[in-house]
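Tokens for Cyclic-phosphate processing Receiver domain-containing protein. Go.
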Amino acid sequence: MYLFMDDYRPCPPGFKLARDAEECLLLLHEYPITILSLDYDLGPDQPTGKDVAAAIAGKRLYPREIYLHSSSPEGRRAMYELLYANKPEGVTVHNGPIPEERMREIRKGSER
């Protein structure tokens, strides 16, 4: 499963949407996630993407690939540093959104 966590943006084709940190962590616990794309800001007085990153690192819930699509440079950096410093071998953490070429591959795979 591919998971996209964002409180505002539309979900890309081929992904399951989590609108908040709680839903994202629940899905990470319950399903094998291979690609995760995280936002940082999730609304006023809500946990952030960094809280999700801390839970991923602490509970070893790493998917194979993680992308950080947040428009907050500070938030993206904080998530990247936390995830990268604690990632197991074989996990890739990207400090940016999913490139269009990779999105095309994902869409193609979800159409099968």
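The helical segments are 21-30, 49-59, 73-86, 100-110.
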